[in-house]
Amino acid sequence: MMQRLLQTRGLAQIIALLAILAIDRAVSPQFFDLRMQDGRLFGSLIDVLNRGAPVALLALGMVLVIATRGIDLSVGAVMAISGAIAASLADTYGLPVALAAALGAGLLCGLWNGFLVAVLGIQPIVATLILMVAGRGVAQLITEGRIVTFTAPDLVWLGNGAVLGVPTPVVVVIGMLIITGAVVRGSALGLLIEATGGNARASELAGIGTRAMILAVYVWCGLCAALAGVIAAADIMGADANNAGLWLELDAILAVVIGGTSLFGGRFSLALAMVGALIIQAMNTGILLSGYPPEFNLLVKAAVVLVVLLLQSPRFANAGAVLGRARQ
Amino acid sequence: MTSKALLAATALVALTLALPATAAELTVGFSQIGSESGWRAAETSVSKTEATKRKVTLKIADAQQKQENQIKAIRSFIAQGVDAIFLAPVVSSGWDAVLKEAKEAKIPVVLLDRDIDPSGKELYLTAVTSDSVHEGAVAGEWLAKAVAGKQCNVVELQGTVGASVATNRKKGFDSVVAKNANLKVVRSQTGDFTRAKGKEVMESFIKAEGGGKNICAVYAHNDDMMVGAIQAMKEAGLKPGKDILTVSIDAVPDIFKAIAAGEANATVELTPNMAGPALDAIMAYKAKGTVPPKWIQTESKLYTAADDPQKIYDSKKGLGY
């Protein structure tokens, strides 16, 4: 019974998220309190959604890349580049130009990764490692190593504003989720991506343009990362090339994996990747609220991730069932 | 050419050759770590100004955070026969061999900003560094004075876990808290020295402490985290600098903007001018043989709204922070 329940797709993730929210409530009694503050919802739950937005955006692009049996390590560096561009241009040229340039840079970065993987056939982990290392350097060149601040109110709104009380970053994530979902699940595209990841050669023979598929997912991943970078810069009203998006590629991959998407490609779930991102952020916010010494942060995080992944493991569920039967 | 003219020319050449030996024309090689932070960039630009002020030729080698580049730079300085070497060490160990080479070439080495392992103590002339425990104490003492005996709950934004600067700035602040029964650190969490994490952690502090009503002051191990925390307080409808006092360390330009706007109260300077005292020590050593103390501590100056923050902001913003 337990075994079958846990194998229902997505149930393990939802249970994990609810359990973590319950723990958050236990360590911090006001966790679910909500109020309006300057036309914006205010509360720990909103923090989870708002702070989780950059990783959720990264996961949205990453999940498609991983579905093709790829991986994109450069998303954190792309965030730094796009944030640096947006912050440098916003005050002089206004939001449309700054946003277009930042997202354009993200597309270019994605195109570069896609070119290396799809056309030159370089292994994804190595191909994207190049931009992961070089990209942060590019961002530092743009900002000249300092934190570039800006005051352009429309760019600040992207990070700190609200639509009907909901923080803008959350609205952006929901918008991107709907667009991505409509494109890949509203058509056969999602299936073709999964086929490419499942068996590229067979898909090629079946007439799927696997190169185009792979190129497209890296471009989309670059765009999502660029958007995340703009939001991260807008949040602190400045571009911090040294730290923006640092190690977030790992959180994004983790979110996708927690969401049940296999690193071997072949199948994916957008919604569960979002749940994965929420699990990570609910855990981070909970750790901050708990008041434990910061030395424990990473330890707690590792333990929680282990438990969530064990919950999803069929072998673990089997072992549980065998133990349960033995006890009867 | 007459013999008189030849003599004059020879004298002139001899004079020119003799000139580098005078104190006014020293050549110093500076192996800088890189430009990983705004402070580092400011240190490089202040070093250049300080050298020009003293008519010293400063050759700066950027090591891009790599020890092997620093060792290469020191070796090339030794080969060029510079009068002194400044070293901002990227790590604390592994310097013995190259510093011995400098010692054999009789070139004094001065450490800037960071110290190295004690095994190499006799290999350098002096170290010019700030005392980060003292910085934390200066911040604490300002707060103790500002609240004047009233009960005060402090939240602390720590630097990166395990970084010696973070450990020391905490230690210094805690030593003042221990002496003042009215001060109490109610929450302490790491903000990794960044604006984004400073903001996120402050958001959670505000929620955990009754919407910020139970917080009387914020202490941040650097100004960048405080800039993030100030945004978090404003977004929560609090008035930083009034409802909640702020004190942080580093004195980067943006915190002066906040102090000028009344949104921050105090900052303790980590001076980017490490080269000035180092140059003074070298010039005295070269001219009169004065051996400086093994450690030259830079001043940890406290700045508040009383120090014309706008003017300091204008003077600091061009330094590369």
Automatic annotation (TrEMBL), chain B:
Predominant place of localization: other
GO molecular function: carbohydrate binding
Presence of keyword Ion transport: no
Signal sequence, start to end: 1-23
Keyword Signal: yes
Highest taxon of source: Bacteria
Annotated compartments: Cell envelope
Gene Ontology cellular component annotations, sorted alphabetically: cell envelope
CDD domains, sorted: PBP1_galactofuranose_YtfQ-like
Family label: Belongs to the bacterial solute-binding protein 2 family.
Protein name as annotated: Sugar ABC transporter substrate-binding protein
Organism expressing this protein natively: Bradyrhizobium jicamae
